[in-house]
Specification:
Helix content is 20%, strand content 26%. By secondary structure, it is of the alpha+beta class.
Length: 362
Amino acid sequence: MVIKEKKTTLQKRLAVILGTMSMVLCFCLPSVAQQQARGTITGTVTSNQGKVIGFRVAAHNLDRRLWYIVFTNKGHYTVPQALPGRYEVMVDEPMFDSPTIPVQLGPGDTKTVDVALQQQDESVWKAANGDGNLDHRAAPNAANAAAAKLVYVNTMEEMYPPGPALGLLKEDCTGCHGNGFGARHYTKEQFLEGIERATETGPGYNENVIALGRTVINKSQKEMLADYLVKNFGPGVPVRALRVDPLVPDESVVSKQIYVTYDIPEDLPFIPGGDQLTADQVDGVYPQMSNRGGPHHLQEVFISPVDGNVWVTCFTSNSLLRLNPMAYDSAERWKNYPIKGALSVQAAGITIDNNNHYIGRN
């Protein structure tokens, strides 16, 4: 299995990363789980090229539908206190292809799984200007930018040069769009259309979503913004990307960590249209549908200080999801609470009120 296929699987299946807290909660399962003697998966990670420093190793328990994620130290890794069952072990590391290795872990077993990686060709992951920066740029949005040159910059001041509209851009645009203008290459008319949608007519993909009505930008300011954007990010302008120093993990630290993640339930329903954010599931106007195999979009997470349950908002089912990390049986781990709402209402943030009630913010 190549790295791209593996990552897609991880993105679709991994639900909530709860870090060391999840590890503690998961290891404190009910008595039936405590009767199951845990085991250990250990091994080495090698590569045909490059150094193995703090690589991420993922062990997927297919029976319990959870993942243990640990990191290497001097090429070695250990998954301690692993629940028995059928596993798939892989390495999830950029620039490297990893095999997926099956292993059966019995109660009290120690299994050795060595993983040999292949570094990907430079045509897939290439260093830019010899400085170790990886070229992640997506395809530009405008066809006339297909051959645009890529230029790395060191600061946001280089990304956004001085200009009369810079203050407006920082105040009203970059908070959400960040450095995403670097590969736009729109014409002035296209930039004006985007500014109009953001401030007046609302996003074009959803007629029910209102625009930023509180953002007051007059016609001359819109013209000024468009002039600035087309000058710095228009057709023929090189793609700007912020240079990021390569991350070198401290193995003495990361190798002591273990993360536990949980598969999203396969029967978690969708709302009509897949990713369309409609609601009203409770009264049946827009009933939830069975999962058609697409990815879910989990939003914010809240960990209850009362019982340790984890609450997550989910866009595509318009639900509050409860994850009980202490549940040994994966069928009992999740509970879906649909949210009643109007057309195009969706769950986003989550908090708790003074009465210990969970509130999903739309």
